Amino acid sequence: MSSRGEVYLPSESRRSGSHVPSMDAYRKMHADSLADPEKFWRDVYRQFHWETPYTDFHSYNFDRSQGPVSIKWLEGATTNICYNLLDRNIKLGHGDRIAYYWEGNDPDDYSRLTYRKMLEEVCRFANVLKSKGVAKGDRVGIYMPMILEAVVAMLACARIGAVHSIVFAGFSSDSLGDRMHDCKCKVMITVDYAYRGEKLLKLKAITDQAINRCTSLGHKVESCIVVKHLPRLAASMNCTNGEAAHLEEVANEVPWDDDRDCWWHLEMEDADTSCYPVWVSAEDPLFMLYTSGSTGKPKGVLHTTGGYLMYAATTFKYVFDYKPGDVYWCTADIGWITGHTYVVYGPLANAATSVIFEGTPFHPGHDRFWSVIEKYKVNQFYTAPTAIRALMKFGDEPVKKHCLRSLKVLGSVGEPINKEAWLWYYERIGNKNCSIVDTFWQTETGGHVLTPLPGCTPMKPGSATFPFFGVEPVLLDEEGHLIEGPGEGYLVFKRPWPGMMRTLFGNHERFEETYFSRFQGYYATGDGARRDEDGYLWVTGRVDDMLNVSGHLMSTAEVESVLAEHPGVAEAAVVSRPHKVKGQCLYCFVTPQSSQAFDASFISQLKTQVREKIGPFASPDVIHLAPGLPKTRSGKIMRRILRKIAVNDRNIGDTSTLADESVVAALFKTRPADV
Ligand code: 6R9
Fold first, then answer.
1. How far apart are CA 308 and CA 282, in angstroms?
2. Which of 89-103, 139-153, 486-500, 549-563 has the lowest mean pLDDT?
3. Residue of 118, 301, 549, 661 with fewest CB within 10 Å of its CB?
């Protein structure tokens, strides 16, 4: 590859072989996809099995003044996504192909699964779900680590038309319980224990607490299916006799309710290995996935079947330039949308071979990612800027220990990637020979919406470049006027693409309010973006009260409400502050009750409370004593000023709307010494 100033051009050899060989080809395909969507997507549609064909290709309304917002693709068509991912690929002769190489937390713990074996397991588990009374449309909760059973569980749901609702296994029991209650899930699937790095996680115990919370909120989970994971982990761990005995003891201590709980392996023993797929409508729900909302309560983003299948398949193929025989690895957890679309649905729709990894980048050494790439000869690697930044800290030595020559495409997702991290990824990991795909998208978008294409798009470090096929981004100013040409504004989309969400579970009103009320006729992402002179788009980050810590999106409101629950807290306000590794971190201003001492124990109680109520990734970095908070005369907290105080920037701008200006000086005085 060569670089021209800030632009990095794909090399000649890479260009000739890629699915989209040039920018001219990209521009034509993109223009065609907008001019005649039916023609464009019909070619994709034809690759899949539809039990009945569509009658109405596509209809939508983004404009609330014209009636309810609605998005529909392939109405009249029926299909089954699990059938398309497994049975169809087996019929095409890919039965013996490896669907997943599974790599455990411990390097000695690994296995693999072919497409044929995967189908067998999925059918068996689909039958288990049926035996628990799960039927089409029922919600099934999943709270699991990155093990093959998690994928099996997802596809088993899809096979019988049930809707999976996965909660990341780093969320606390309260967060899990609230989500179970919101989606009214009938069955939960979890594991006894899991290891993350050196830490033992008691997932079944957390699930039990969550089920209790859910019951107290008025919804009863009928069954809980538990994978016995710890004993097999222990077997591969090279334990001393003493450690092994201890783990066995722990394994036997799993909390249990005989009426509700059952073991996965025992249920699977007698289950039939075939299960006829349930044909569902293209617009029937496939899954829901919670994402943070700026008012605090998480939103159950709902995705449907037909359009999502086409979009996951197409983005995977083009954005990773996947070719048969390639080995692809996405490090995202299945608890996030990236894990749904680019660990499971996209790769399997392309009969791809993937690596699925249960561990962390730091265990047993800081070279774990690079050693896994070498071990499986990974061709496409997809991870998050926060991981890249964390690994950069250890320098080049861990990288140099491994041969990374198999790599062709390097992906980034979750937050803007800073130039320094981009260059390190490009030079040290990709050896200046790989395309970097900085993919911008959201839980709501279902798949990539802004992204370079490998071997095609000249790259600029930090820019997500151009829209994917079928996507029409627009920048708007405060008043909703179009920004054409170079400029910065609100990033919105003018029309739906097939993989976009359809609604928020059980709350279409909130769906319309959140995404379609700020600008009439547009889907608002909540992000800002800049367009440069060459037409490249640069996502600048959230424009609402959301923050992105290590790629985990959360709202300031949700953290504030947890802090406010502490009896010693009178008021709390949370803002984000830039962080070298995490991208952003939580900076919390807390006004204690007059009787509450602001001491180390109080600070640690507050931090623990946030970890326990939301999850360890939400742990605040700073708790700042706030004698008062800067407010407008109407009582609104001025976060703009708090963000300045958090970075010790005294240039706070206009303060004319402040009710009490002395508050600001007081806050600068109480800044903790060590931040
Ligand atoms: C896929 C995912 C969505 C938010 C999104 C934006 C940020 C994601 C990005 C990016 C800049 C990128 N984001 N990818 N910002 N460049 N390449 O992350 O979904 O968890 O819903 O987060 O993440 O702020 O709005 P989700």
1. 9
2. 549-563
3. 661
Q: Ligand 1 within 6 A of 527 CB?
A: yes
HSE toward the beta carbon, residue 144, CA cutoff 13 A: 29
The number of the ligand 1 atom at minimal distance from the alpha carbon of 526 is 25
What pTM does this model have?
0.92
C-alpha dihedral, 45 to 49 to 52 to 55, nearest 10°: 0
Q: Which residue of 294, 492, 539 sits with most ligand 1 atoms within 8 Å of its CB, as the best mutation to test the pocket?
A: 539
**Cis peptide preceding 364, ω within 30 of 0:** yes
Spatial distance between the Cα atoms of 642 and 648, rounded to a whole number of angstroms: 10
- Structure-token pair, residue 124: 């068996």
For 241, which DSSP code? H
Tokens of 438: 């900085």
Q: Please, what is the Cα angle at 137 between 132 and 140, to 5 degrees?
A: 50
CB 291 less than 6 A from any atom of ligand 1: yes
Q: pLDDT tens digits for 355-402?
A: 999 999 999 999 999 999 999 999 999 999 999 999 999 999 999 999
Q: Is 314 in the pocket of ligand 1 (CB under 6 A)?
A: no
3-state secondary structure 491-545: EEECCCCCCCCCEECCCHHHHHHHHHCCCCCCEEEEEEEEECCCCCEEEEEECCC
Contact 498, 73 (CB under 8 A): yes
Contact 310, 496 (CB under 8 A): no
Beta strands in 128-197 (DSSP E): 139-143, 163-166, 187-191, 194-196
Asked if 555 and 614 count as a contact pair (C-beta separation under 8 A), the reply is no
Helix (H, G, I), strand (E, B) or coil at 262: strand
Is residue 533 predicted with pLDDT exceeding 70? yes
Question: How many Cα neighbours within 13 Å face the side chain of 162?
Answer: 30
- The residue type of 536 is Y
Residues 6+ apart with CB under 8 A from 513: none
What are the CA-CA distances from residue 265 to residues 166, 433, 599 (Å)? 21, 45, 50
Contact 190, 166 (CB under 8 A): no
d(CA 267, CA 225): 9
* Angle at 188 (CA atoms; ends 363, 120), nearest 5 degrees: 80
Whole-angstrom Cα distance, residue 554 to residue 135? Answer: 33
Backbone angles phi, psi at 158, to 5 degrees: -60, -35
CA angle 220, 223, 228 (to 5 degrees): 135
Contacts of 43 (CB under 8 A, 6+ apart): none
**Residue 338 in contact with ligand 1 by CB distance below 6 A:** yes
Q: What is the pLDDT of residues 69-95, one digit of tens each?
A: 999 999 999 999 999 999 999 999 999
**Interval between CA 507 and ligand 1 midpoint (Å):** 23
**Placement of tokens 């201890």 in the chain:** 246
